[in-house]
Specification:
Strand order of the largest sheet: 1-2
Strand content: 5-15%
Number of strands: 2
Radius of gyration: 20 Å
Distance between the termini: 60 Å
Helix content: 55-70%
Largest sheet: 2 strands, antiparallel
Length: 75
């Protein structure tokens, strides 16, 4: 189980990741989260998921490009 901001145990199957960020970045995340009536944790989790999807998509495109380039260079 994980603890919430008040130290209370909260049942969850999600993993915990801790990071350090600049104060300005945290303030911007707080403003963003408040504007969407979400937690900072929710906003950051969605950003991480999107970054991973983009990286995986980019990796797939790079693999296709490398494969097609190596096939076409058989001089």
């Amino acid at each position: 189980m994980n603890a919430d901001a008040q130290g209370q145990e909260m049942p969850t199957k999600l993993e915990v990741v801790t990071t350090y960020i600049e104060s300005e970045v945290k303030q911007k995340l707080e403003k963003w989260a408040k504007g969407e009536d979400r937690s900072i944790s929710y906003i950051v989790a969605r950003l991480i998921e999107k970054a991973i999807e983009e990286r995986e998509h980019s990796s797939i495109d790079n693999d296709k490009e490398t494969t097609s380039t190596s096939k076409g260079s058989g001089k």
